[in-house]
Amino acid sequence: ASVSEPAQKCCTENIQPFLTSILEELMGPVSSGFTEVRALFDKEVNEIIQDFQKTNDMTRLKENVDQLMTLPFNSVKMEPCYLKVNLLQELLQDLKSRFKVYNIDFVIQRTQNFMQELMENAVYTFEQLFSPSHQADSAKVATTIEKVKLRVLK
């Protein structure tokens, strides 16, 4: 009871006025990282569509879809996504000195883990909605892939 009032006063005066601007500042790199994940998924599926339109090869399509499933674990392809949130390192250094924020690396790592999880969910959902083995009419496969991609991105 004796600590409650001074603690509320401290939060109201020293922290609460800055919360909105802090969140906006932090969300820039986080949002751009998740936007990069979305763009990577879109690019990879578009490449599958283009490859299938060139080859019309169902076996190769299955291989490409199988390869898409490994995308979340492909550190080279995911790296540009992860780099976007590395900007948090600089932003959080300022917060560290002003608000005693610690474990900056943990915040960045957790954000990158969420990005990988989002990609895992996207490719899993894509695989569930589109199964090349169930596609009888190869003329409609590219259109179906595009529809599934848009559904996943939604």
Quick summary:
This is NIBAN protein. The protein contains 7 helices and no strands. It has 154 residues and is mainly alpha-helical.
Helical content (DSSP H or I, runs of 4+): over 70%
Could you describe the largest sheet, including whether it forms a barrel? none
Give the overall shape: elongated
**Uncertain segments:** none
**H/E order of the elements?**
HHHHHHH
Separate helix tally: 7
Separation, N- and C-terminal Cα atoms:
49 Å
Number of domains: 1
Task: Give the DSSP E fraction (strand runs of 2 or more residues).
Answer: under 5%
Please compute the radius of gyration using only Cα atoms.
22 Å
Q: Pairing-aware structural class of the strands and helices?
A: mainly alpha
Mean pLDDT: 88
Tell how many strands the DSSP assignment holds: 0
Domain Niban 1/2/3: 9-154
Pfam family, one: Niban2
Family: Belongs to the Niban family.
Protein name: NIBAN protein
Give an overview of the whole structure.
Belongs to the Niban family. Pfam families: Niban2 (PF26086). Residues 9-154 form the Niban 1/2/3 domain. The chain is mainly alpha-helical. The chain has one domain (3-153). Helix content is 81%, strand content 0%. It has 7 helices and no strands. It has helices at residues 4-14, 16-55, 58-68, 75-85, 88-99, 104-129, 141-153. Helix 2 packs antiparallel against helix 3 (58-68), helix 2 (16-55) packs antiparallel against helix 7 (141-153) and helix 5 (88-99) packs across helix 6. The termini are far apart. The model has no long low-confidence stretch (mean pLDDT 88).
